[in-house]
Design goal:
Blueprint: E1 2-9, H1 16-27, E2 34-35, H2 36-43, H3 49-61, E3 65-67, E4 79-82, H4 104-115, H5 121-128, H6 137-149, E5 153-157, E6 166-169, E7 181-182, E8 187-190, E9 195-201
Antiparallel strand pairs: 1-9, 2-4, 3-4, 5-6, 7-8, 8-9
Helix pairs in contact: 1-2, 2-3, 4-5, 5-6
Length: 209
C-alpha cells in the first residue's frame, strides 16, 4: 500500500450545513432578521429548500434562532433572528432540535489533540472520550495515521515492539475548528480549507494503483 499526499479541491461544494450556517451568520449580523428564502438564495447551489427549512426548524428548537412574533400574512415567510452565535462551526441539529452523535468522536479527537501536547493514540482516545461519546483506541489510531500521513501530526517517537508511536500536532497545520474527515474513498478532507489534503492509494495485485 502506498500513501500519497494530494492537494486538490474537494469534489462538490462544502457541506450544506456549514454553508447554511455561514449564510445565517451573515444575514443575521447585528440582529437583522432573515427568512428561509434569504438563506436558500445564498446557498441554493449547496442545498435544496427543504433541507434549509429542516435546518432552520432544528436551529429554532435548539435555541439558536428565534422567529418573529409579529403577525404575518398567510403564505409569506417566517422571519428569524440569530439568538445564539457559537462561531464559525455549524451547529449539528436534527429537525427536532436534538444533537446527533454521529461524527462527534472525530470532532472531540481534533479538538483534544490541539491541547494535549504529545500523545499516543490510546492517550488521545482516553482524553477525547466523554460519557456520552466514548472514543475507541482503534478509532483514534486510524485518525492519527491519516493526520500523520497528511502532514498534520509529527512523530515524536517511532513505534517499536510493545511501544506505541507518539505524535504532536504541527502548529502550522491547525487549519481551524472543523475536524478533518476520513472519507469512504480513503481520502482526508479538511472542511476548514475545503480541500482533499491526503489520499491513501491501494495498489492492485499487479503493483499498479
Amino acid at each position: 500500500m502506498s500513501r500519497k499526499p494530494v492537494h486538490l479541491k474537494a469534489q462538490g461544494p462544502k457541506g450544506d450545513r456549514q454553508a447554511m450556517w455561514e449564510a445565517i451568520r451573515g444575514l443575521g449580523a447585528n440582529g437583522q432578521a432573515f427568512t428561509l428564502r434569504d438563506v436558500w438564495l445564498l446557498i441554493s447551489h449547496d442545498a435544496p429548500k427543504g433541507r434549509v427549512r429542516d435546518y432552520l426548524m432544528g436551529l429554532e428548537k435548539a435555541g439558536y434562532l428565534k422567529r418573529s412574533d409579529e403577525p404575518r400574512v398567510s403564505g409569506t415567510y417566517v422571519h428569524y433572528t440569530l439568538e445564539r452565535d457559537i462561531g464559525v462551526e455549524a451547529p449539528r441539529v436534527r429537525r427536532d432540535g436534538s444533537e446527533p452523535l454521529a461524527g462527534r468522536g472525530r470532532e472531540q479527537l481534533w479538538r483534544t489533540l490541539k491541547i494535549i501536547g504529545e500523545f499516543t493514540a490510546a492517550q488521545l482516545a482516553d482524553a477525547a472520550s466523554t460519557p456520552e461519546v466514548p472514543v475507541a483506541e482503534h478509532t483514534a489510531r486510524d485518525y492519527c495515521y491519516f493526520l500523520r500521513d497528511a502532514g498534520y501530526l509529527s512523530v515524536t517517537r517511532e513505534a517499536s515492539p510493545g511501544v506505541p508511536e507518539r505524535y504532536r500536532l504541527m502548529p502550522s497545520r491547525w487549519t481551524g475548528p472543523l475536524a478533518p474527515m476520513i472519507q469512504r474513498t480513503k481520502q482526508l478532507f479538511d472542511p476548514n480549507t475545503g480541500e482533499v489534503v491526503y489520499s491513501r492509494i491501494t495498489k492492485t495485485e499487479g503493483g499498479e494503483p
